[in-house]
Amino acid sequence: METLTGPDLPASMVLSHTFSAGSALLKPILRWENQVRLFAELQTHYCDLYMDLKCLCEDIAAAQNLGSKHNALFEHYRNSFKALERKEPAQNDVKTRRLEIRVNEEIKINNCWFPREE
């Protein structure tokens, strides 16, 4: 088995390892351990939930029928989603609005290119 090193590594892998190392160094300094852990947990669970819902859609399409098993799974996934929403930290509306204004100042919608509608 060949080991990738140096310039042979894909850029995404290098970036991922750099981010992991950087966050490992910054977590104790900035005291974001709990927030980082919470967001990592939420992201993992949301990804799992997405894949579960995708599989459910594929199962329904393959069966060409919506049975009680599918309904039960959907209700389970909906409850899981609601539980994840309750774990999310409260949104800071002032900060969100400030960031929206900053983005809108830096990116003028009139300067953006949009494809023609056909």
Please, could you describe this protein's structure?
The protein is an all-alpha fold and 118 residues long. It has helices at residues 11-30, 33-63, 68-87, 93-106. Helix 2 runs antiparallel to helix 3. The longest helix is centred in the middle third of the chain and has 31 residues, at 33-63.
Per-chain topology:
Blueprint (H helix, E strand, L loop, with lengths): L10 H20 L2 H31 L4 H20 L5 H14 L12
Helix pairs in contact: 2-3
List keywords for this structure.
72% helix; mainly alpha; 118 residues
Short characterization:
This protein is mostly helical. It has helices at about 10-30, 35-65, 70-85, 95-105. Helix 2 (about 35-65) packs antiparallel against helix 3.
β-strand percent reads: under 5%
Summarize the amount of helix as a percent range. Answer: over 70%
Oligomer state of the chains in this structure: single chain
Query: Mean pLDDT score, rounded?
Result: 81
Low-confidence stretches: 1-6
Radius of gyration: 21 Å
Query: What is the overall silhouette?
Result: extended
